[in-house]
Every structure is written in structure tokens, then in C-alpha cells.
């Protein structure tokens, strides 16, 4: 039975360039065949909720023994062991084989650039449509010939508004701490592609956590603000208390 929602919001700050790939169906002259994903309405880059959720889940599964064992058993597919924390927090794909006794507890929204970031992009000549071109050379180690290429990426210092909803059913309130654990793991890893080449280092900042019980939805009660403009360690401490 539904007990409450925790609404986790804040900023995703790009500490290095970020590349989450999009479609290269049409390439402008001087453009890139490795473009970032863009919103179809504004044509500006964004961070899909599926990409963020997938990264959070993958890193958590590598850090949790039972979840990792289930991933190995599934030949690399996400954990579907109903006793694993990963399945309880992040859910599983809906198919006939899944017989979990609980619903998915987490929703990860798409993240869009802040107004401040849009102004930053507009003020820089080398940033076009919210992205820069990073040029690289693929060097042949035998004859030293170089094959130049470019990749489009969201520039450093860009910020995106994020929102994660964690739903509590009955006795599982303590599971929310694993959401913050996965966020910490991501800060020391990378989001998107080319992370081993320096892309995708991010930080979660200006974090606000609100608790919205059933009376918030039934009686229009004010939410309980647990953290306001804090960081992950502060959120973990307040949630634990």
C-alpha cells in the first residue's frame, strides 16, 4: 500500500564535457556524425531519464553482491531477483517472466538545461545549439597515419534540472538511501559515453528532498522539506535520521 513519495530534485553539473548520443540521420556541413541527443521541440541537448537511471542502476549493481550475482545469472541483463536491492529500487522490465511481488519504486525524469546554462551557451561562439565539437585523432601505430574525427558534446559547466521520485510502500522506507548511494557512485564514474577518455564527469548539486505523504494528495497538505539546497552526504544524514 502507498505510504509516501520522496521527491529528490536539484542540478546535474557537468564537470567535463558530456556526450549522450543521439541520431545522425542528417548531418550539416561542418557538423558531427557523433551528435548528442536533443529535445525535438527546442533542439537543445538534454539528459534522458533512461540514461540517468540506467547509469545509476548499473553502478549500484556492481556494488551490491546479490544484485551482481543476479546480473551474472542473467548474462548481463539487469537483476530480477526479488530479494536484490536493485530490483526493489529500480524495478525490472515488464514481461511475462517477471513475477515480482512489488511495483517499481523509482521514477527518473528527463533533465533539461537551466536558464543560466542556456544563457551560457548563447554567449559562447564555439557552442552551437548547446554543444561543442571535440576533435580527436585515431592514430595508426604501424604507419603513424592519423584519422581525424569529431564528437559533439555538452560543454563543461552546463547544468541540468533533475528530478527523481522514490515511492515508499509500507515498510520499505529505508530503501531510499540506496538511491543516494548510486548517485555517489555515479559522481566517481561517468555519465554517457567516452568516460574513459575524460567525458561525463558530473556532480549532483543544490539537492532538495521533499516527503509527500498520502495527505499531500488527498488533503492538499504542505510537503515536509527534509533537505534544501544541500548535497548528497547531507541528504543521506537527514534521511537516516
Quick recap of the structure?
This protein has 241 residues and is of the alpha+beta class. The chain has seven helices and eight strands.
Give an account of the 3D structure:
The protein has 241 residues and is α+β, with helices and mostly antiparallel strands. The chain contains seven helices and eight strands; from the N terminus they run E-H-H-H-E-E-H-E-E-E-H-E-H-E-H. It has helices at 49-63, 65-73, 85-90, 115-123, 176-187, 214-218, 232-240; strands spanning 2-14, 106-108, 112-113, 132-139, 146-153, 159-169, 202-213, 224-230. Strands 1, 2, 3, 6, 7 and 8 form a six-stranded antiparallel sheet that branches. A two-stranded antiparallel ribbon has the order 4-5. Strand 4 (132-139) and strand 5 form a beta hairpin. Helix 1 packs across helix 2 (65-73) and helix 1 packs across helix 5. The radius of gyration is 20 Å and the shape is globular. The model is unreliable at 25-31 (pLDDT under 50).
| Mean pLDDT rating | 85
Helical fraction equals 25-40%
- Count of strand segments: 8
Taken in chain order, the helices and strands follow as EHHHEEHEEEHEHEH
Structural class based on helices, strands and sheet pairing: alpha+beta
Rounded radius of gyration (Å):
20 Å
Strand content: 25-35%
How far apart are the termini?
23 Å
| Uncertain regions spanning at least 5 consecutive residues | 25-31
How does the major sheet shape up?
6 strands, antiparallel
Shape: globular
- The number of helices is 7
Amino acid at each position: 500500500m502507498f505510504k509516501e513519495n520522496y521527491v529528490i530534485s536539484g542540478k546535474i553539473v557537468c564537470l567535463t564535457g558530456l556526450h549522450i548520443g543521439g541520431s545522425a540521420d542528417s548531418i550539416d556541413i561542418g557538423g558531427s556524425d557523433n551528435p548528442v541527443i536533443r529535445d525535438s521541440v527546442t533542439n537543445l541537448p538534454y539528459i534522458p531519464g533512461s540514461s540517468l537511471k540506467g547509469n545509476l542502476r548499473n553502478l549500484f549493481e556492481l556494488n551490491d553482491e546479490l544484485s551482481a550475482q543476479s546480473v551474472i545469472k542473467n548474462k548481463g541483463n539487469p537483476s530480477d531477483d526479488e530479494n536484490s536491492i536493485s530490483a526493489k529500487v529500480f524495478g525490472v522490465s515488464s514481461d511475462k517472466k517477471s513475477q515480482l511481488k512489488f511495483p517499481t519504486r523509482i521514477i527518473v525524469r528527463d533533465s533539461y538545461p537551466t536558464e543560466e546554462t542556456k544563457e551560457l551557451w548563447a554567449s559562447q561562439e564555439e557552442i552551437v545549439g548547446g554543444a561543442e565539437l571535440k576533435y580527436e585523432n585515431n592514430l595508426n601505430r604501424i604507419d603513424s597515419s592519423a584519422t581525424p574525427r569529431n564528437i559533439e558534446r555538452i560543454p563543461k559547466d552546463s547544468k541540468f534540472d533533475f528530478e527523481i521520485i522514490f515511492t515508499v510502500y509500507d515498510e520499505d522506507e529505508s530503501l531510499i538511501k540506496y538511491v543516494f548511494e548510486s548517485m555517489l557512485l555515479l559522481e566517481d564514474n561517468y555519465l554517457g559515453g567516452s568516460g574513459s577518455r575524460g567525458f561525463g564527469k558530473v556532480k549532483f548539486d543544490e539537492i532538495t528532498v521533499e516527503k509527500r505523504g498520502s495527505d499531500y494528495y488527498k488533503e492538499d497538505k504542505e510537503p515536509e522539506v527534509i533537505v534544501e539546497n544541500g548535497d548528497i552526504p547531507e541528504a543521506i544524514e537527514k534521511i537516516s535520521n
